[in-house]
Every structure is written in structure tokens, then in C-alpha cells.
Amino acid sequence: MSLNGGSPGPAARLPALRRFAVAITLLNVLGHFGLGFEQSWAQPLVALAAAYGVELILETVSAWSERRPAHYRGDGFALVDFLLPSHITALAVAMLLYANDRLGVIAFAAALGVASKTLIRVPAGGGRIRHCLNPSNTGIAFTLLLFPWVGIAPPYQFTENLSGVGDWLLPGIIIVSGTFLNTRFTGRVPLILAWLGGFVLQAGVRSLIQGTPIVAAVLPVTGMAFLLFTFYMITDPATSPSTPLRQVAFGGSVAAAYGVLTASHVVFGLFFSLLIVCSIRGLGLVALAAIRSPAPAPGRAERSLSPRVAITPASVLKVAE
């Protein structure tokens, strides 16, 4: 998670990461101790170990190849701050996936989510190259595709042991904290509004075309998984547009993709729709950079490749932001 362009600025990146990491850690601890999480304690621990390991290995190799100090070197907090993104990815994967007692796929999902930031990178303007796929969502979506027997954690687990005012309090906290985070740090409120509006619109369209009861079509908005997806996943600043109009297009596109997938009876549409839209956006950035890139001088095409149009190959483990 990092801020760019229209966001409040790079200075807000680290405070946002720290708050997000604290929030998702508290939710996992409360979930396993009292809310009713169905997964074992081993699941988040395995996910964290896999994510930390992959992040540290990739950075170590990258630093060695580029002959620079590793980003995790420094004072006592350098390592902690460096691992914040992988910490968030690991806990999101562990919280939302359910694989019974098979922990290998959880490690796979966390490792893939972290590795995707290095393996798939596209031009981001100004000569920068960065990842375009949401790490947590990528790990979850590919795990669901490759391992059909893995499912999403049951929605009731977030409030299974709550009753009365507690059923309203926890969702309220998620909404308030997510709204604050996205207003103060990420600047992704237009994206959230476009996603929510698009979700209601696709529900209405499916109701008209397929006869789906409108209440059933919009019912997912009442679930905790939907709230976490809305306020903490789709709004990832590193993998979503920064300007308001592009945010609206991005959020509306995810809603449209979800509607098409659901109408086609594809389950887990939230995660697949975000993966599809992020992938299309990444290809669009590559194409745009190729169009804007000046043509190489005659006789030099085989020796040079503009960094603004090149996707980092898998053999190159890290490109400086």
C-alpha cells in the first residue's frame, strides 16, 4: 500500500500503513479470541511466516543485484516498517480464506500475493514502474482458481459470538475507521462511492433481466466481507487510480465485472472482478506508455528498451519505485 498522484502525498504512506496494520491485527486477534473465526490460529501464523519470508528474500536478492543497502536495514523500526505491507497481505489472506486444516495453500496465497508486487510491474508515469495487482486480492483469487476445494471464510464468523448492539457495533467500527482512513490518507472516497453505486445499479439490472429479487441482489452489502472489501481492499492506492474521474471509472468497472460474473453464475465474484479490472488497467498502462514512448533511433532497437514501456521480467526481482 502506498500513496501517489492525487493522494495526500508520500508523507502519509507510512502512517496509513501503520494504522491499517494495527486495525487488521486487532480484527484478527479479536476474531480468533471472541468473534468466532473458524480458522485455526495456525492459519495467520503460517501466512505471516510465508509473507515475511518471501518479502525478505526478494528484497535481499534485489539489494544484492542493484548493489544497494536493503530497505529493511537501519534502526530498530526499519524492519517493522518494511514488513508492514506483507503483514497486511498475510492477515487479509488468512482472515478471508478457509482451507480447513491444509495450511500449505494459505502459505501459497500469502507468498503469491507478496511476490506479485515484484513479478508483475507496469509503467506508472514519470519513469516509474510499479505493481498493478492488489496483493491480497491476487493471492486470494488465484488460490480460489487453482484449488477449487478452498473456499471463502463463512460470513457469519465475524459476528458469530455477538448479539444485540454488538451486531451493529462491529460493522459500524469498520465503516467509520475505513471512511476515516480513505478520507484522511488514501483519497479514495470517489472510488468507494462509485463502487457502491455501481453495485446497486448492477443489482437492479440483474433483477430486471434475470428476475433476481432485488433484496437478494443487494444483500451482500450487509456482510462484513463486503465491508472489508469496500473500505480496505478495493481502495489500495498502489493499485487504483488517483484522480477522481478515474477512480469513478475504476469502481464502476469492478461493479460491472461483478455483475457479469454473478449473472454467469461465477462464485467469489468480488475477488475475481477486482483481479480482472486491475489486470485490464495494467495492460492499459503498458499500452499507453508504449504509445507515448519515443521510437528508438535506427540501429539501436536491439540494444535499448525504454523503461517507460517495459514490464519488469521475472528475472529482475525489484525495480526501484
Fold topology:
Layout: H1 13-35, H2 42-66, H3 78-82, H4 84-96, E1 97-98, H5 104-119, E2 121-125, E3 128-131, H6 135-146, E4 151-152, H7 166-186, H8 189-210, H9 214-218, H10 224-233, H11 244-263, H12 269-292
Antiparallel strand pairs: 1-4, 2-3
Helix pairs in contact: 1-4, 2-4, 2-5, 4-5, 4-6, 5-6, 6-12, 7-10, 8-11, 11-12
Summarize the structure.
By secondary structure, the chain is mainly alpha-helical.
User: Nearest-angstrom radius of gyration?
Assistant: 20 Å
Strand composition percent: under 5%
Number of helical elements: 12
| Uncertain regions spanning at least 5 consecutive residues | 1-9, 301-321
Instruction: State mean pLDDT (0 to 100 scale).
Output: 86
Order of helices and strands: HHHHEHEEHEHHHHHH
Number of strands: 4
Biggest sheet, in brief? 2 strands, antiparallel
- Overall shape: it is globular
Query: How many domains, in number, for the residues?
Result: 1
Characterize the structure shown.
With 321 residues, this protein is mainly alpha-helical. The protein has one domain. Helix content is 61%, strand content 4%. It has 12 helices and 4 strands; from the N terminus they run ααααβαββαβαααααα. A two-stranded antiparallel sheet has the order 1-4. Strands 2-3 form a two-stranded antiparallel sheet. α4 runs parallel beside α6 and α11 crosses α12. The radius of gyration is 20 Å and the shape is globular.
